[in-house]
Amino acid sequence: MTASARAGARPPTAHGRNTAAGVLLGLGTVAFVDEVVFHQLLHWHHFYDLSTTGVGLVSDGLFHAFSWFATVASLLMVASLRREHRFRGLAFTAGWLTGAGSFQLYDGLVQHKLMGLHQIRYGVNLVPYDLTWNILAGILLVAGVALWTLSRRRARGASGADPGRA
Fold first, then answer.
1. Burial of 54 per CB tally in 10 Å (0-12, 13-18, 19+)
2. How far is it, in rounded angstroms, from Cα 121 to Cα 115?
3. Gap between the Cα atoms of 73 and 42, Å rounded
4. CA distance 110 to 99
5. 146 SS3 class
6. Model's pTM, two decimal places?
7. What pLDDT digit, counting tens, does each position of 97-133 carry?
8. CA 10 – CA 29 distance, rounded (Å)
9. Separation CA 81–CA 84 (nearest Å)
10. In principle, which of 59, 97, 103, 127 could form an S-S bond with 48, CB 3.0–4.6 Å?
């Protein structure tokens, strides 16, 4: 008997694993798009703008590595779920939207405003940029949570009386 079984912990469900894979890909996707578009192509900011350009570039590299680790981990999870014939697109999409929205909202509120690591852009009125960034994040997050709720209900219905096994 495994330690988690002895402790009464239930193994991860297919729904939970699909959602987690989606969350990781959502994080990785938004981080990747942010890094490529705003950091590399537009040169609007670095991940960490409170030091030299060199430190900013190193922070961008670490941020880029994070996005790829999240993406690769997600794809490995999806491959495992597909091998087991347990991949569920609805739960995965719910996770993707939730992960993307959560990361973008965290970036916009915590990193931009609370910690001041960087702003979306410098030398301009930030209000339209901040509103657009955070409203889009909120839309992604609300859509993800709504889809997660729907996918969870479907998983409960498909698994019968035990919703934890879907």
1. exposed
2. 16
3. 28
4. 16
5. helix
6. 0.85
7. 999 999 999 999 999 999 999 999 999 999 999 999 9
8. 30
9. 5
10. 59
